[in-house]
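Work package 3, deliverable 3.1, input record:
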Amino acid sequence: MNLQIDDQGRLRHFLSVDGLNRDILVDILDAAESFAGVPEQTVKKVPLLRGKTIVNLFFEASTRTRTTFELAAKRLSADVLNININASSAVKGETLLDTLRNLEAMHCDMFVVRHADSGAAHFMAAHVQPHVAVINAGDGRHAHPTQAMLDMFTIRRQKGDFGPLCVAIVGDILHSRVARSQIQALNMLGAGEVRVVAPRTLLPLEVESLGVRAFTDLKQGIHDADVIMMLRLQRERMQGALLPSAHEYFYRYGLTEKRLSHAKDDAIVMHPGPINRGVEMDSQVADGPRSVILQQVSHGIAVRMAVMSMAMRSREAAAREAT
Amino acid sequence: MRSVIRNGHVVDPVNQIDRICDVYIADKRIVAVGAAPDGFSAEHEIDAGGQVVCPGLVDLCARLREPGHEHKATIASETAAAAAAGITTLCCPPDTDPIIDTPAVAQLVRRRAQQAGHARLVPLGALTHGLAGEQLSEMAELLEAGCVGVGNVGGMVNSQIMRRAMEYASTQGLTVFLTPEDPWLRNNGCAHEGAVATRLGLPGIPEAAETAAVARDLALIAQTGVRAHFCRLSTARAVRMIARARYDGLPVSADVAAHQLALTELDTAQFDSNCHVNPPLRTERDREGLCDGVVHDAISAICSDHQPHEADAKQAPFCATAAGISGLGTLLPLTLRLVHNGSLDLTQAIARLTCGPAEILHIDAGSLTPGVLADVCIFDPQAHWTLRTADMVSRGRNTPFVGWEFDGRVNYTLLAGRMVFKRAN
């Protein structure tokens, strides 16, 4: 059973890259390309989702992801409801399923969900009514597929073909939903080599089974890389049993101009944000000519518009076919 | 009341019986297997032609949820489910609410089971007061109240307290039941730390969470000489450690949950919360190691690890759901799969469900020896059936085996000579 693709092969929900196929990923990137020009228009809107209600259901704090989803929905002319559950029902003991049922009763058409538990988006998708679509905006350590797709979009715009690329993902792989989705997307799109770079405390067991080469040395890991994708290191992980200190992490894994010289001359540097300057990378690198970090953010809107419109189109088509 | 079970394929591992013959019961007890005693006239007769007749099954670990969690199940509901599964003796761990750390609670659960009358219930007492790992429980009184052993149930007790608890338990002649899990290594894990958890981003429980605890406890068993039983192993490495310890002459035994012999981490790959169990489902190599342990006697009992839940407990993202499978109904069918696929012979399989666990519990059950209470299970080993939730007897419908096809189904269960289950046709 594939929750994400309906029997016509259309995108039904967008929960993880795992379980999709190359064609759908390319469709998303192509659709995003067509939406990328929308903000330059005088009226920054297309009427694709007019009359639809989209609920941003965030059980975890987020600024960037939530605002870009909100903006994407508004540019598609949908009505948007932002619900921050930390401050409402979860503290009153309402279950995820009850929250879902209550919002469904308000005739919502799409849920964009972020949750601290891996598998939360799958759980919701398995329980929503057939006309409702679920978009995963990050679940636990499991997946953050729209982030991965905006990264792929950025890479494709910068580098064109994925085939010859060597991509190094650096940082806290163990806890990162972003890294898992990036790895799956890169492999599905045929990237030549995908590497992960981290101390062993931040690498999950059997990481190679994801289809990567693992490195514990930064210089070796980014040697001749075309793309370096840095990950955010959560503050609570900087000291304790995973890492001795932020200082030592930067000393061994921080990206500096000097270290960047080990990568290819035209290598690009990415980061999903927010950056810890002086922990994951130097400001010189973050703000330097190789950095495409701000492009990633603006691409996030186009990619989210693409995913939302594709999922909604398949739900509408399914509803038509049912009648 | 005198009964006879005719023409069944009698399998009684203790007495090395494996042939078609009759079983004679009088005054609640087995009186003969084979030839009728002089002057025996049966008032009641069961035709067991084409069926296996074996001792009633003994299940080393079943949570019946009473007292404390009656919204999930009750002693009456779950002992009835046990009877329908051919199980006549159930051992329940002490983590009820209140905890079985006083004679009153031990007596309460036994009395409830007696009132329901479907199966025998033998409780384990808590190793420490409140299972808190600080103060020894009143083991002598628990023994008096009918506890067949004392156990720790999850989490490691401070090594010094564990040593003292083992010494004190051995003073009382009690077996210590250990659930080997290092809580620091387990941390917030909910799935085996390996390829599947890595892909799904589920916090992992490393193999060492089990093996580190087994290693420490084996050292303390060697130090104290206590008789100890390791509950519900999940790793091949722990099986080898136990096998080695038994070879070295340590007084240890081990069991495995039936689902661990059928499922692996791959079954969790779709976030199926019915596969959320503790200890977690591990690798295919672990599953093979556990089966191997069952075959070669490092593991002398297969248990249901029955944990019935209400539907809501499984309706959430994987890690947020309650762990456990409602397993009474699949204990025998899952064990028989090992017979059908050639891993075990029928006598061995039945031994792991009857005399194996009975010996661990030091109780007079698990055999058809003349003189013992007539607890008997009669099943059709060829009956082909598909598990459906609607057919489950347990109150808990939480099982990953819905839709599985099994060969082998219980038709009659006798408890002290009285028929407590008969399959309706």
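The CA atoms of residues 243 and 298 of chain B lie 5 Å apart.
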